[in-house]
Amino acid sequence: MNEPKIATNARVALIVGAGDATGGAIARRFAKEGFIACVSRRTAGKLAPLVEEITSSGGMAHGFASDARKEEDVIKLVDEIERDIAPIEVMVFNIGANVPCSILDETAKKYFKIWEMACFSGFLVGREVARRMVTRERGTIIFTGATAGLRGSANFAAFAGAKHALRALAQSMARELGPKNIHVAHVVVDGAIDTAFIRDNAPERYAMKDRDGILNPDHIADNYWHLHTQPRDAWTHELDLRPWIERW
Question: CATH homologous superfamily of domain 12-240?
């Protein structure tokens, strides 16, 4: 089977943390709009079904094994995409690290790891793509946040600290890069998402699916696409997405 020919005006949507639910849905949504979906996670083999799904539907996609916590991996990833595929027009940072634990039992090692995953890696990827985008004077950077970035709940000290920091990073980048025509947005995803994990571990919550009580990944992805297409006279920086049943 011949690979689709890449046009000279090709654009990449880089999704870092392209899992089976939200990240995959975002990749499919941008590929549907003609973007080359470049998806990454630490294990490349887990990306194969997503890449196959996109390409079999007529889109273009590439999978990359990359640890976003490591500066050398991030630099290599961005350099390779920019050199061999196409300019990165959109970057979505979608790495999660939601691991509850009492502050009395939390370890320094796990606290640091959660911060690396949910915040530090966002800085590394955001910095590298921003360096390319500013030279072209355009681009969209979207960070996936959580309610933990707004308030810290009991037993979520590490996750809340990391997500608060990610939100602050997004705000700082938006204020600096907005005048350079780069749209930086932060999406607060508040609620259970339709995933195998929720189905298997929270069956009572998953039973609310038929009542629109959990988030549909495709509907989340629609909002990410909308953020990218907004005119800059009406940019959204922070967007909340939650099912109607969620308290807030």
Answer: NAD(P)-binding Rossmann-like Domain (3.40.50.720)
